[in-house]
Amino acid sequence: MRKTQTPAARKATIDDVAALAKVSIKTVSRVFNSEPNVRPTTRERVLAAAKELDYRPNLSARRLAAKRAFVIGLLYDNPQSDYIIAIQEGSLEICRQYGYQLLIHPCSDVGANLVDEVLSLKHQGIVDGFLLSQPISENEVLLGALTEQGIPHVRISQRAIGDAPRVAVDDEQAALRLTEHLIELGHHRIGFVMGHPDHGSSHDRYDGYVKAMRGAGLPIDASWVEQGTYNFESGYAAARRLLTLSPRPTAIFACNDHMAMGVLVAAHERRLEIPADLSVCGFDDTPMAHYAWPPLTTSRQPIKQVALIATEVLLKRIQGGSEGDDHFLLHSELVRRDSTGPCPEGP
Amino acid sequence: MRKTQTPAARKATIDDVAALAKVSIKTVSRVFNSEPNVRPTTRERVLAAAKELDYRPNLSARRLAAKRAFVIGLLYDNPQSDYIIAIQEGSLEICRQYGYQLLIHPCSDVGANLVDEVLSLKHQGIVDGFLLSQPISENEVLLGALTEQGIPHVRISQRAIGDAPRVAVDDEQAALRLTEHLIELGHHRIGFVMGHPDHGSSHDRYDGYVKAMRGAGLPIDASWVEQGTYNFESGYAAARRLLTLSPRPTAIFACNDHMAMGVLVAAHERRLEIPADLSVCGFDDTPMAHYAWPPLTTSRQPIKQVALIATEVLLKRIQGGSEGDDHFLLHSELVRRDSTGPCPEGP
């Protein structure tokens, strides 16, 4: 690749870059140290000038001097692909803006070595801090160790544990809204499939369902509530039980889209028309909700947005720019598709 | 957390660990330097002894001394979640065995800064080498730069470009087998939805389809072959065109499961019974294939296995243990489910 050469083909310096980009040397330095508060247009101009001149700052030296890795670690346990990819995408978008890299470290929430394993990533200088997703973000032993050692971390969780910043979606409110949607369609017997018992989100969604039913003065029969584990198979098994009840629920609310896909298959096997005979809704709005037959009514979670905010809060902490309690609670959006319709028994 | 203490509560040394684990000091050192050829049982014993004694080797020093990051980078562009999560899982499994970490770096195959961006990860000492997935693994400019600078890398690709090791699935063979399955069921008019034109895999799968049709002496009408892009919408749009042909294809082979889900929805909208009126097959065996209605016949790709092998080859190269041309071609497995059946027009 040919590059524009400085006069005597000598190695370009930071002065050359500053001159070409028409900014101060300090600004060039700030761009290459990934410091915040550099205007995007300025940053672009500096990077373009550096590229033009083939300027290569000594970046290993930068890492040693800053005593920072310029890498953050994402911790999670046994994820749904769509969920964790959305988290990764959001986090990478911010990392890129700040000149950081993302290291992924799935680990077992119940693993005996969890704490040692995580701390050693920081002690080895591999990462500067951690982004924790559920259920790792609710592991009190790990959270205690991170806090004690002053290691920057941000939790994706709605549960208040310790002082670390947390970012989450208001699951209860979203589930309340979905349940109200079913009630507005005339449904009274609404089955509910819970998610994994170790995830706070499952309990919050259940609370939203209960609140909506009570708000409408509707009773909840214990036989309508089934325990699932957030996977397809558990939704399928739960629906097979719910669909043999007499009288049968006229709607089923599954706590995530994977389980709702299982409900759809169980209903198709019994030759039930959806939504004419049974309304079904999921939660999350994964791509799958859109591909289902019929397409699923669900709650669109702003997962990527959660990761964007959590990563920005983390990077500001790592760079010493913020120490306050930052807690964010984001809202979901009800997405109506063809899997829910009027109650077959009328309003 | 309470730990067993050495006699005078002094800090444990490498000698203490060697004594407790009943191995030589050299072996302890090899375990902590993630060198290969330590027996798993020995490794476990050393780690257990280190844990028992709360021994903490100076791992930052280890990284500086070894001039290695003990991190590898995974490069990819715009992935399907299930595919990239399987790659990440396979890669992490081997990384864990070797004491390495995985950094993820999605990047644009057509981005102007791709080469600078990737090389800088190595120049900054953030990673020791790269695992490249499609289509980045077929970017000749990037491959040329990595080779020129002697940066270890392994390609997930079937295309021979340069000398770097490559690992792939035999897509042509798998597509040939799926097409033969449809022909055995009596289908002669078989529609085909291609994947993204920039991915070699799409062309290989098409070649397999052509080979099977020719092998059975069947003609291929140009109108039966539609261009897709590997996403749901492109499969849906292609099927809407294919299903208006007269005579209509009796089977549609979509080049991945996402597009096959789109074919199913287009068929459901036309009230076609599957497989009675139309057989549909996908490719990849993503979880979605199993959740579809009806569940999809597809080809189960050993994606995780590809990542396991590619990562092991990469780590051996980084550790200087191998320099030969390592090329691996893995086989897929035909998975018959309910979306394919006998041709409605008879054999």
From TrEMBL, chains A, B:
Pfam families: LacI, Peripla_BP_3. Keywords: DNA-binding, Transcription, Transcription regulation. InterPro entries: HTH_LacI (IPR000843), LacI/GalR-like_sensor (IPR046335), Lambda_DNA-bd_dom_sf (IPR010982), Peripla_BP_I (IPR028082). CDD domains: HTH_LacI, PBP1_SalR. PROSITE patterns: HTH_LACI_2. GO terms for molecular function: DNA-binding transcription factor activity; transcription cis-regulatory region binding. Residues 12-66 form the HTH lacI-type domain. This is LacI family DNA-binding transcriptional regulator. It comes from Sulfidibacter corallicola.
